[in-house]
């Protein structure tokens, strides 16, 4: 098994990734800022894929082919692959390979939320940016600058820093207030301080769709950065509200949808129905882009 995993990793082709301007152009061309989350759970996959050698990869492949015209990014969640050991990581690597070979103009965001002391972060960065060659990686900022900067050493790669997340527990810490040098929430401090480490060309921020008008506060500190926005759909976030408060002159948003697209159906036509759901979101996004003269 480990030999197979090494062979899959060796087959990854290192290519130039999508820079900020190219991402903006893709959004304008496709009239979409949709990111499809590949949170692939065998318990929710249709029965028809289980006759295949690698059901997880075959499910991903079908979803990707059906949704690619309507999105600009894919976000495989590493937890859903790591849970199955080497076999799961084979599926992840094959998915990354497939995207790079067949859909090279889509941004690949590994949702792994890494972050540790400097030398450990260096190895995490090497894993995702060299071995797997993904375009972007979600990173946790809690341990500070030296835990994040190793990821920023890779030219052309993106760090997607957790700022204000969509889960209920986000308020436990992210909304706490510091009084020095002046009153600000912890998420605001993360936004402010982290801009000393990276810039809008290599850093995005995770801001949950359920945070509503707080996008205004985010934009006061980070007006030009792209925001990766989970929580639209199954988690109750409003696309219209996200755009009202969070969209900038370049769009500046990647709105992620996972369950609402990839598990829209469990019958043999699951991919077609997923494509329809992605197209519906793309059409809504097109209207939002028009509202903002993009």
| Secondary-structure class | alpha/beta
How would a crystallographer describe the biggest sheet?
A: 8 strands, parallel, barrel
Beta-sheet strand percentage?
15-25%
**What is the 3D shape?**
globular
Q: Which bin fits the share of residues in helices?
A: 40-55%
Number of strands: 10
Count of DSSP-assigned helices: 13
Poorly predicted runs are: 1-15
Rg from C-alpha positions? Answer: 18 Å
Helix/strand order: HHEHEHHEHEHEHEEHEHEHEHH
Strand order of the largest sheet: 1-2-3-4-5-8-9-10
Gap from first CA to last CA: 48 Å
Describe the structure.
With 294 residues, this protein is an alpha/beta fold. Helix content is 45%, strand content 15%. The chain has helices at 2-10, 20-30, 55-67, 79-82, 85-102, 118-131, 145-152, 170-173, 186-194, 214-221, 239-246, 259-262, 270-291; strands spanning 34-38, 73-76, 107-114, 136-139, 158-164, 177-178, 184-185, 203-207, 227-229, 253-257.
Quick structural summary:
With 294 residues, this protein is of the alpha/beta class.
Summarize the helices and strands and which ones pair or pack.
Blueprint: H1 2-10, H2 20-30, E1 34-38, H3 55-67, E2 73-76, H4 79-82, H5 85-102, E3 107-114, H6 118-131, E4 136-139, H7 145-152, E5 158-164, H8 170-173, E6 177-178, E7 184-185, H9 186-194, E8 203-207, H10 214-221, E9 227-229, H11 239-246, E10 253-257, H12 259-262, H13 270-291
Helix pairs in contact: 1-5, 3-5, 3-13, 6-7
């Amino acid at each position: 098994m480990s030999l197979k995993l090494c062979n899959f990793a060796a087959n990854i082709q290192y290519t130039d990734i999508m820079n900020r301007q190219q991402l903006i152009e893709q959004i304008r061309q496709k009239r979409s800022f949709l990111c499809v989350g590949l949170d692939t759970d065998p318990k929710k996959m249709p029965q028809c894929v289980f006759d295949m050698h690698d059901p997880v990869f075959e499910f991903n492949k079908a979803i990707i082919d059906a949704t690619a015209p309507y999105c600009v990014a894919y976000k495989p969640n590493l937890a859903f692959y790591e849970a199955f050991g080497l076999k799961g990581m084979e599926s992840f690597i094959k998915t990354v390979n497939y995207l790079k070979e067949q859909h090279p103009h889509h941004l690949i965001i590994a949702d792994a939320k890494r972050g540790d002391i400097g030398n450990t972060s260096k190895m995490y960065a090497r894993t995702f940016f060299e071995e797997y060659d993904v375009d972007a990686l979600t990173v946790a900022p809690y341990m500070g600058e030296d835990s994040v900067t190793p990821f920023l050493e890779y030219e052309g790669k993106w760090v997607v820093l957790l700022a204000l997340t969509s889960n209920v527990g986000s308020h436990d810490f992210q909304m706490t207030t510091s009084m020095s040098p002046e009153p600000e929430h912890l998420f605001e401090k993360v936004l402010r301080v982290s801009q000393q480490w990276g810039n809008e060309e290599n850093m995005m921020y995770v801001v949950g769709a359920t945070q509503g008008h707080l996008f205004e506060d985010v934009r006061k500190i980070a007006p030009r950065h792209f925001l990766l926005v989970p929580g639209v759909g199954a988690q109750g976030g409003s696309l219209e509200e996200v755009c009202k408060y969070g969209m900038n002159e370049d769009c500046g948003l990647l709105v992620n949808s996972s369950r609402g697209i990839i598990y829209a159906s469990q019958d043999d036509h699951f991919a077609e129905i997923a494509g329809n759901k992605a197209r519906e979101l793309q059409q809504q996004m097109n209207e939002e882009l028009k509202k903002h003269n993009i």
